[in-house]
Design a protein that fits this description.
The protein is an alpha/beta fold and about 230 residues long. It has seven helices and ten strands.
Length: about 230
Amino acid sequence: MIVFEDVSLVYPNGVHALSNISLNVARGEFLFLVGSTGQGKSSVLKCIYREACPTSGDVVVDDWRLSTLPHGKVPFLRRKVGVVFQDFKLLRGKTVWENVAYALQVTGATSRDVARRVPRALELVGIAHKSKMFPHELSGGEQQRTAIARSLVNNPLIMLCDEPTGNLDPETSSEIMALLARINSKGTTVVVATHNQASVDRMRRRVVRLVHGRIAHDEERGRYHVGLG
């Protein structure tokens, strides 16, 4: 589903983000990316949805080789890849319903499709009763659920989450991770970059630790391993 082939990434400002990363994520897998700030977690995610292009090596996503993917095809790639951010990135002037619907509308979905798929996404994340509310009227957990619904509404094959619990309290963090596990159980490949040690240790999924842009540890049913970088 996701393959990194000896990927290195140097940003224009000279920062060496990734060094010779080789990684294979199977269809339907749940993977945690862990490591302290600046170790390359977000850069791995950016390479998957083509926000960043490797300096060397290549990334393959669902048989699409990203180094040769025409710029005009990138929006089609991103329909297969849902992305959830720490700061939610919701449109402040739109309701919950409108935020989720917007993700469909920009892809040219019909009004009938929007009317059918938005309620389904909101129901799945448990926030259908908040559909008419605006982001500032929601708790942090409710905003994150809205962001997840927006990512889900296009039925992505892959969901990428960049510190999805970073601004949430422990109880809400547990609820969000349980939601991601439920989404994964329906067949979506989930990759979570996180500092949330408790969730990683509790869920015991595959854990890949990055240190200075390299894979330092890759363990099935792993733990966070505090103190290793």
